[in-house]
Amino acid sequence: MEFKAYIYCLADLVLMATSLIYGLKFFGKRNYLLGIEWLVVTFSATNLLINALTGEHVFYSISLFCDAFSRAVGVPVIAVAGMMAVTHRYKPSITADVMYVVGALAVTVVVWTADFMTAPKPYFYLVMWSLFSVYLAYVAKRLLSVGESLNAVSVILALVSTQAIASIYDFYRIPGDDDQMIFYIFALLSWSYMSVTLYYAYCALERAQKNEPDLNPGYALRGLERTPQ
Questions:
Q1: Residue 3: its pLDDT value, please?
Q2: CA gap 192, 132 in Å, rounded
Q3: How many angstroms separate the CA atoms of 143 and 152, rounded?
Q4: Which CATH class is domain 3-211?
Q5: pLDDT at residue 220, as a whole number
Q6: How distant is the alpha carbon of residue 163 from its chain centre?
Q7: Distance between CA atoms of 189 and 192, rounded to whole angstroms?
Q8: Quick one: CA torsion of 21, 25, 30, 33, rounded to 10 degrees?
Q9: Is residue 106 very low, low, confident or very high in pLDDT (cuts 50, 70, 90)?
Q10: DSSP letters of 95-161?
């Protein structure tokens, strides 16, 4: 096994560990949308590692499907909806959580299998991730507004790194990287960094919400009842 293959496996293990740990932490906060998406990433990374160690293509196919889920809907829609708990006080019901996941699976199946999506698929992934990056910029702005500059910088770094990965994923090959292993090393580490960064950004905004109950424009806490202004 080449040296870069060992680095690739190590990067995959890092993603498996971070997405699992912080996915479970989100479950602990009862944010099931973020928890589920992070565990989908764990499952994808696990199958990718098994493929690297065994060469069995079925595990690579499973990982690619999970990757399509995360790129198409999982991160741009489900993760954003989960983060909106601390940016917009949006807390969907369990039923809504299930509908998000079922809807995301349906969209992924269409994107993955439909002939009419073959040509526009790479552009669809890029547009969806770019919309997610716009939301991350908003998260960074909110963090700055509550004095969390370090977390804001961390979110911007996650934005830049993952947007760079999304922008070249289907459109550019690193010279000499015929097997794309170098690209995947950077991609795995970028996603790992994002999974950690968004957890601490979430916690920072959650603390700010508790300390300043009227942080979200349009709502005020009056006694024990939150009412629209």
A1: 86
A2: 16
A3: 5
A4: mainly alpha
A5: 39
A6: 12
A7: 5
A8: -40
A9: very high
A10: HHHHHHHHHHHHHHHHHHH-GGGTTTHHHHHHHHHHHHHHHHHHHHHHHHHTT-HHHHHHHHHHHHH
103 CA to centre of own chain: 17
Q: Within 10 A of 106 (CB to CB), how many other CB atoms are there?
A: 11
Q: Is the dihedral of CA 179, 63, 195, 6 positive or negative?
A: negative
User: Domain limits of the chain?
Assistant: 3-211
Q: Which residues contact 69 (CB under 8 A, 6 or more apart)?
A: 40, 104, 105, 108
Quote the CA–CA distance of 29 and 151 in Å, as a whole number.
19
Which pTM value belongs to this model? 0.89
Helix (H) or strand (E) holding 222: strand 219-222
